[in-house]
Amino acid sequence: MDMTALIADLVGIRLEQNDKIIQQKSRDFYWYSPVLKRQLDHVTGDLVASPRTEEELIRVLKACYAHDIPVTPRGTGTGNYGQAMPLSGGLVLSLADMNEIREISPGRVICGPGVICSDLDKATRAHSSQEMRMHPSTYHTATVGGFIAGGSGGVGSINWGGLRDFGNVIRLRVVTMEEEPQILELTGEDLHKVTHAYGTNGIITEVEMPLAPAYDWVDAIVGFDSFDDATLYANALARQDGILTKLITVVAAPCPFDYFKRHQKFLTEGQSVVLVMVAPHSHDAFKAFTARHSGEVVFDASMVEDLKGLPPVFELAWNHTTLRALRVDPAWTYLQSLYPFPNQIELAAKMERMFPGEMISHLEFVRFDGDITCFGLPLIRFTTEERLDEIVELHHANGCPVFNPHRFTLEEGGMKQTDEIQLAFKRQADPKGLLNPGKMIAWDDPDYDFGSGETWLFKGLKQAS
Amino acid sequence: MDMTALIADLVGIRLEQNDKIIQQKSRDFYWYSPVLKRQLDHVTGDLVASPRTEEELIRVLKACYAHDIPVTPRGTGTGNYGQAMPLSGGLVLSLADMNEIREISPGRVICGPGVICSDLDKATRAHSSQEMRMHPSTYHTATVGGFIAGGSGGVGSINWGGLRDFGNVIRLRVVTMEEEPQILELTGEDLHKVTHAYGTNGIITEVEMPLAPAYDWVDAIVGFDSFDDATLYANALARQDGILTKLITVVAAPCPFDYFKRHQKFLTEGQSVVLVMVAPHSHDAFKAFTARHSGEVVFDASMVEDLKGLPPVFELAWNHTTLRALRVDPAWTYLQSLYPFPNQIELAAKMERMFPGEMISHLEFVRFDGDITCFGLPLIRFTTEERLDEIVELHHANGCPVFNPHRFTLEEGGMKQTDEIQLAFKRQADPKGLLNPGKMIAWDDPDYDFGSGETWLFKGLKQAS
């Protein structure tokens, strides 16, 4: 790779050439997975470019195209699947500086891909008491564009489903990786081409997202002596059509008491908990409903005088649950699974009992294809990669699909099949295959057998030197 | 009844003594039902009182208590079950003048019971772009208090379920009918005592309701050649978690073309339609989704230049569907039924085929106990009361509960069983049984057998003189 020539072409664009910083900007939270840690720990780009405008971005892409340099786009690198890691080196394309908020109107916002989620909400709240429909638990660090390209849902999915659902992204402006980059405006059916494609087939330069009303959500934690009771309550609460919540999370004992250190004084050892964000105008109904279910509200932010030092409850949920466990005990890793409706209660109970001492259950209730059900993000005590694969297989065998966070490809981390729409769009938008190489098996290895059960190996993975 | 003494006690309170006007104010839309029309056509009160404040109201109640005069509270009489009709005569208590809007804040509003729904929304929209979560199709005439006391849900129930659900009413201030009326503030679990109790056990003097964000909802009509296709599409649209709608209604042919006269130029004879209200920021997604389902958008208010003379689509839906059919052909009446999840599609298709020429299907998609399903408000061609009862029985026999709109009691129009909570509260709040007599069987006839299959006869029903 002729990086010197590339750099010469990029005069005036913000570049980073310090090796340590480049390495830092080549990483995400891949290290939650001991498997990805082993495979990707050495991965680093050769240069970071941070365009501030679409014109600068296009200059970068044209230059990389001309010099055949791989380009791995990223926001702030808060993913967990190695989404933003440059497997073949080359240019790390930071979109964090394209962070202009352009227009806020009822129900929608238009902004650059690099806006941090919490900054976006701050602006939309101030403008008209609105906020994003959903955000990752890395709300304060993740970019909107990175969330769309690499995420799937999060806090708010209990109301709105996932990013893949019609209506949760309104429009994306995308630049292709061709000799003459094209600028495309994607809406409706076409959005699927690039959402959750890890930036393998186009660079998002502007997003138009729907907004929901912003409320002063009340954080609450409800304690239960049994995981099953917590799950039943959480499921029933999620099915209360008139109680507006933004988060309903079940975390089994001993995780809450052992790992939610800052909330420990509110918690009882041995209790499983349900984390809830409830709208202030649903707070009364939430309390009445919880009392009916014999739930004990052990923490209610609206009743606690001094909240200083306490993180919001969504920072105990989604992937932050894993993070808090890992911080105390690095032997933990995790999975991402789905407990399909209508069997979520039975499946969650069954899986909870299947791996005593080896798994701590963690459920995130969501709307999924019109039904209330839950994802699982269980903590898994890591021993060997073989055992981890076995646990994944046991989930599949019991009817719980796993979106394997120990794989760095779109397919293995997702639906285990070629996404023909995204592949076809990559053929058009990235004919040289320079965008985020190694993340789309269908591109690199069209004959790969997804039923093989083998982990796919990316031949272009740059080896540690 | 000593009305003269009562009137003397009510000096300074707005009274109506003109017989014609009293009769007018003693009616609702009971005449949608030929059965209720026969039974109740002669019903009229003896006096109408319209207090403007809670103090005036309490004076009225105390005076009626002292003189043993029945009191039938009402808003504007837009119910269909005879909810607001004074079966034993006496005082008609109009709450329409208690229509102050007291406080609007994020997610909630506090107001008097007599505020008209559309007036409330006008104020909350102007204040902070908010609106009621749900409203009846009689939006422009119905009062908020009447909706709570006599309604169950409506436009918006696709997002929020029904009024009976936790969280859809925040607080009710209620005055009892005792020698010394008490003022109670009901929240949480206690709300059920008086919601949908037809004012039989207390008078609502203030309501606190949750608000949802107000959008400029786009009216659309999607046409299908078959009712089954329309139902499948409507159900699938309702299950799109990311597409924000406020109304999803299926009306089978020939109703739309024959009875939606003002929209007729957009409609095709023989087509069944789906009526949709969609948020502007979900409009793109709605169009993409509809195209995927081969639905033909035959009317899209955002594309029609001259909307003059066209009612909003919600005035083609819920009980307005019946009204439009009745206006053209008075031989129609209707039912209210539920197609329970997860069999709503099959049940709707089955019932549609069961009564050829005698029934036109009409489905209202809603959230119900956490699931997406639909109510039925089918048009029924009336022949005899026996046949009508037979049709009701055939619904029950096929697993579709009917909330019989041809009965004037709470129990027969609802769950066919005693509501012990409402009954217990009536014992406390209305010891003389003066509030809306004849509407709660459990009060008048504690030994009544709900399994008898007989229509209950209210002995206190004032006969035509």
UniProtKB/TrEMBL annotation, chains A, B:
Q: Which organism is it from?
A: Hoeflea halophila
Query: What top-level branch of life does the organism fall under?
Result: Bacteria
One GO BP: lactate catabolic process
Return the protein name: FAD/FMN-containing dehydrogenase
> Which of UniProt's keywords are assigned here?
FAD, Flavoprotein
Q: Which GO terms describe its molecular function?
A: D-lactate dehydrogenase (cytochrome) activity; D-lactate dehydrogenase (NAD+) activity; FAD binding
Tell me yes or no: is Glycoprotein among this UniProt entry's keywords: no
FAD-binding PCMH-type domain mapped to chain residues: 40-214
